[in-house]
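Session log. Operator J.P. requested a structure for one protein chain; no other inputs attached. Running the standard single-chain path with token output.
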Amino acid sequence: SVIVVGPLLSLHQCGLPREIAIELFQTFVIRGLIRQDVASNTGIAKSKIREKEPIVWEILQKVMQGHPVLLNRAPTLHRLGIQAFQPILVEGRAICLHPLVCKGFNADFDGDQMAVHVPLSL
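Structure written below.
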């Protein structure tokens, strides 16, 4: 996704759009819905996610607090080309980054794109 400036974010945070976040964390949200007895199986949980019920966003917020994401800007030529961030939900369709972390990625805000990865285990 395209990156945009997020000056209100901390250096360790990145803003993830809701559409991207729900797709990346879908398996964790499904597990949360089943554990809270909101859904009895994965099919019902997926339908609740598709319908964008309010409980889905609450569970997504909780899940995101404990799961860092990896941001990667191609080409990854050195170790700063991929870094971990704490995701924060934002509106829109672009990833938000604090301007001071762009140097490591060799990124700017003229249409650069980055990939987001979610580790399955920590």
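Operator note: The first helix runs from residue 18 to 24.
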